[in-house]
Amino acid sequence: MNFSCQYSVRIYELLKMNAYKAKNGQFEKYFELNKFRSFLDIDDNEYTLFSNLKNRVIQPAISEISDLTDLSIHDVKYGKTGRKITSVTFFVTVRTGNETNPQQANSLTDSIKPEKQTENHPVIESLVSLGFSLEIAKKYKNKHGVKKIERNIAYTLAKNQERNISDVPSYLNKAIENDYGNAWEIKQKKELEDKKQQDKLDQAKKTSVEKAKQERNAQNQKAFNDFLQLPENQQKELKKEFYDNTDSTVSAQIRMAEKRGVDIFTSPMVFSNFKIFLVDQKGF
Q1: For residue 147, what pLDDT band results from cuts at 50, 70 and 90?
Q2: Which of 261, 252, 282 is nearest to 270 (CA)?
Q3: Number of folded domains in the chain?
Q4: Which residue range(s) make up the domain with 82?
């Protein structure tokens, strides 16, 4: 098939396995992004930015498969969870033999034309979009490398949000030359790790507090259940002792319940404080 993109063959195989499902010559194939990366043997540290995965893996493969095979990928949709891309769906048309062969012949002819232009690396396109000339952008890619440029672009954009830099190309040029983004990136990673650690501690504390609260509620409820098992005269004595020692707000709730002729424990405030009284003062 004369593929030049290393991932084209694997994506073609994954799609071809589903061609039998085509209706009216068309079918679609959905992949969760993590599984899709796994199918292509792409490591976690490769193409960490989705834009790089899209521009350097998915799009080239789409072009080659559509140009050189019996499958034409006429659309691709990317699903999101929140703001993060988490899935990719290919919409595919299965060509007949008569449609495929001329298409392959034309593509092979095009591929040997010396004037055919190759796509620029995404980092070059990023530099151009930020005011660099194409020639300087290509020169910087070769001189400084992709990682260094990417972290200094991120650094410059972050600083621009903070104080609205008047001359972004000049600022970015100085950042790349001095690699200001290196220390900034390390700081960002540390802050992220610190936040993750703090979130973990906060969650552990929250879980501990919630567990203690549940245990206390269970203890209070058990105390009240034990109270109900006592003889009536002992229950009255405990109620009276509670009445005599409770605060004015709870006393007001008790009087209100008695005035209405209902059980005093229908008041959540009275009920809660009575259970605490049983546990803390009477040792239930």
Answers
A1: very high
A2: 252
A3: 3
A4: 8-111
